[in-house]
Design goal:
With 548 residues, this protein is α+β, with helices and mostly antiparallel strands. Helices cover 46% and strands 22% of the residues. The protein has helices at residues 6-48, 69-75, 79-82, 93-103, 155-177, 196-202, 206-209, 214-217, 225-232, 276-322, 328-336, 341-350, 353-378, 390-401, 433-453, 489-494, 512-523; strands spanning 53-58, 63-67, 118-123, 129-141, 144-153, 181-186, 191-194, 239-247, 250-260, 267-274, 386-388, 416-422, 429-431, 463-472, 475-482, 527-532, 538-545.
Length: 548
């Protein structure tokens, strides 16, 4: 039998011992090692399938050490193309400069705990660019320095932001383009919305108004505090009110609409519209409708009234002639009956028959004038329109209007003062001079009669009527203003109605303003406005196109 050498024997023993040790170690550490391997595989799967692109940059070699599948998908590069490639391949120059800054930071070798998020682009193969939101982390692994970059695709978010901003801009333009004051308030009545027209009307910019108490920003809303507060609390479904304010001597009408917020938040939207033009237009429509109605009846009424009225006036004239002392036939007829004519005349005077007959005649003539006025504004064709000197027309009307008023010529207290305020170089006016004179005479006499009838007027006070002629764009503006008693709101509403008058019976037909309004608006395509307040006098504003 062959004898083994001692050296070989020792080697075999050593190998057996090593084998036994390795087997023993594998049996002891295999479960823990396997669990660690599983954890690494799960982590690798998580990283590979993350929605964000991950890049691991080896700082010392300035190349990518690893990337995930999302990074490959976003850039269209293969793993072989990215690995060991510099970051300039997929990141812009400024981002790469940031990476250099990270490396030269004094604390980079200890830790990098900044959570700054920067916006950059991910450069893809073929020149594509994807906007991303990127974060950086610095790690030491196995003695080497790595920078881990997480890039999140923000294309959808940016698109949503652009759409949201577009919607905001659109809504903002709509709100700011409205020719209405639009104010939004929260549950504490603090301003949360203030459009450009609110800025224009109040002089307060949105940044100055928002967050402040609405009644401090717009004190005129205090009168509607109850409505606004009740709307905010949900006690009422909003409401609408109409009010007017004096602005530079003019009555301006406004409409306020209060609406509650729709949704979970408490608050209200307040809209204020200037409805002065609409109010004036409604008045024009009402007056036009009335004129059409009365005008349609005028011709028939004139025919029906004029026949008996003519007979009445003719009969009165005949009676007055029969008892007149100027006709010889009257004396002859009395002598035939054996009655002295003078006795008949004295009897008529003593019994007031002559005065009563004169009164009947005057009333008949007044009725005839009413019919004539009705026919005048019912006719579709007026006087001939020619280019005229409006200043001369006004002066003629003044002369005709005040020829019968003695106090016009007084220079002391209690007289009438006509104040003329005319612009220089007034344009010629295409109009019917006689019709414009008629309007002016009506208005001037109305002013004088109103001043004389004012019970609050002191006897020695001077009556003042101011007549203004101004040039406006394409118009001549005529104003007649007096210092009379003015009108209250109720009378003002009815002032242009036919047959409405505040004068005693027998002194007015109620057609003066109505006919004047018709002549200006219908026959001369102008405008006719009344501005008045009790105790503040009255102003008539007329605008007539200057078409010459």
């Amino acid at each position: 039998m062959k004898r083994r050498s001692k050296t070989n024997s020792n080697e075999n023993v050593r190998n057996k011992l090593i084998g036994l040790g390795e087997t023993s170690m594998r049996k002891s550490y295999y479960p823990e090692l396997r669990e660690r391997i599983n954890e690494l595989e799960r982590f690798r799967a998580l990283v590979e399938n993350a929605n964000d692109a991950l890049f691991v940059l080896d700082a010392f070699s300035w190349s990518f050490a690893d990337v995930n599948k999302t990074a490959l998908k976003k850039t269209n590069y293969s793993r072989d193309e990215l690995l060991d490639s510099p970051p300039e391949l997929v990141f812009p120059e400024d981002t790469c400069f940031l990476l250099h800054e990270v490396l030269i930071d004094d604390d980079v070798y200890s830790s990098w705990d900044k959570e700054d998020v920067s916006m950059t682009d991910l450069l893809g193969k073929g020149g594509s660019r994807i906007p991303v939101e990127m974060t950086l982390r610095v790690h030491f692994v196995g003695g080497r320095l790595y920078i881990v970059m997480v890039a999140r695709d923000v294309r959808r978010r940016l698109a949503d932001q652009r759409e949201l901003q577009r919607t905001r801009n659109y809504l903002g333009n709509v709100i700011n383009s409205m020719h209405s004051v639009l104010v939004g308030v929260d549950e504490n009545s603090n301003v949360v919305l203030w459009n450009d027209y609110a800025h224009e009307e109040t002089g307060r910019a949105a940044e100055d108004a928002e967050g402040n108490f609405v009644y401090e920003m717009m004190p005129e809303l205090s009168r509607f505090e109850h409505l606004i507060s009740a709307t905010i609390r949900g006690e009422v479904e909003g409401g609408t009110e109409i009010f007017h304010m004096d602005r530079e001597g003019y009555n301006v009408f406004h409409e306020i609409v209060v609406c509650p917020f729709k949704g979970d938040e408490a608050g209200a939207v307040i809209r204020i519209d200037d409805i002065t033009a609409r109010t004036r237009m409604e008045e024009v429509m009402v007056q036009t409708e009335k004129m059409m109605t009365v005008g349609g009846l005028a011709a028939g009424m004139a025919h029906e009234i004029n026949n008996p009225l003519g007979g009445i006036l003719q009969g009165i004239q005949n009676i007055q002639r029969r008892i007149s002392g100027h006709l010889p036939k009257n004396y002859a007829a009395a002598d035939e009956l054996g009655i002295p004519f003078n006795s008949i005349h004295e009897y008529c005077e003593k019994r007031g028959i002559l005065d009563k007959l004169e009164s009947v005649r005057e009333m008949g003539e007044r009725s005839a004038r009413i019919v004539s006025n009705m026919l005048q504004f019912s006719r579709q064709s007026g006087g001939e329109r020619v280019c005229s000197d409006i200043e001369q027309i006004v002066e003629t009307a003044i002369e005709l209007s005040f020829s019968g008023y003695d106090f016009y010529s007084k220079s002391g207290g209690g007289g009438l003062e006509i104040i003329r305020e005319y612009d220089d170089s007034l344009p010629q006016l295409l109009c019917s001079p006689s019709e414009i004179e008629q309007v002016l005479i009506n208005l001037l006499k109305n002013s004088v009669q109103a001043i004389l009838a004012d019970q609050a007027r002191v006897v020695d006070d001077i009556a003042r009527i101011t007549i203004r002629l101004r040039k406006e764009s394409g118009f001549v503006r005529l104003e007649i203003e007096d210092n009379g008693p003015g009108m209250g709101p109720e009378i003002r509403k009815k002032a242009l109605e036919p047959f409405f008058t505040t004068k005693p019976v027998g002194e007015g037909t109620g057609l003066g303003l109505f006919v004047s309004y018709f002549i200006i608006t219908q026959k001369h395509s102008g405008t006719f406005e009344i501005e008045t307040s009790p105790g503040e006098g009255m102003k008539i504003i007329i605008r007539i196109p200057s078409e010459c």
